[in-house]
């Protein structure tokens, strides 16, 4: 709380009272803190792969270069770390573009059933490679939503990418759809490791991870769900999660439904 005070005088200059103004700066301070934390997080996240790249490059230069096996291993680590760095930068740019509202969604009427099928077909080989089942539970007919198709693709692939990362071999992942008049809900379900209840409220925050080491090993940047949250809300939807450790997770997001297009003309109507 910030306080300022000034005397209040009457016409004869006699003191009538004191004016005290209390500024509630809690929110300003909170935003400053969130921003400072974010910058600290970014610096840390960027530094980790750079330190590792530098360390291995130096070791190579100091002689490991001439040991064929060691050289191969170190170069492959350098390559992986460079990839992580590149993913991180890409995710950060994406997030900052959405947050600054530089890119506005370009909404169009999309057949969600067809879009989901296409994305699932494209990701299927990666699931098969890890020994995971990827199924869909979709209605036979087209279900229209109003959304940006690039955004929809990014939302779904981030959620499916997580399901793939956090579900052990032999597990099952499914994408379902619940049509509605006002909004259509999509659910991405897995029977993977799940998320402890105490972590659930923070899971959509930037860089928040239940298990940092695990996420890192699996190539995570900690930004996937923050991007999902922003994109869903920019398209007029909501996102939420239900999860149980050891049993799996269900990520839901909604998009505005397209009202049925009214038929024009009076075909088939009897002539009077
Ligand atoms: P990351 O790049 O670490 O996966 P995300 O923002 O995509 O970052 O997710 C944040 C964290 O939420 C993850 O580190 C993980 O702990 C948890 N998480 C996300 N999706 C799942 C899932 N399907 N199953 C279990 N945990 C998940």
TrEMBL record:
Species assigned in the record: Thermacetogenium phaeum (strain ATCC BAA-254 / DSM 26808 / PB)
Localization in the cell: Cell membrane
Catalytic activity: ATP + protein L-histidine = ADP + protein N-phospho-L-histidine
Keyword field contains Membrane: yes
One GO CC term on file: plasma membrane
Histidine kinase domain mapped to chain residues: 41-259
An MF annotation (GO) of this entry: ATP binding
Enzyme nomenclature, EC number: 2.7.13.3
Protein name per Swiss-Prot or TrEMBL: histidine kinase
Keywords: ATP-binding, Cell membrane, Kinase, Membrane, Nucleotide-binding, Phosphoprotein, Transferase, Transmembrane, Transmembrane helix, Two-component regulatory system
GO biological process, one term: cellular response to phosphate starvation
Positions spanned in the full protein: 209 to 480 of 480
Main location: membrane
Keyword Nuclease among UniProt keywords: no
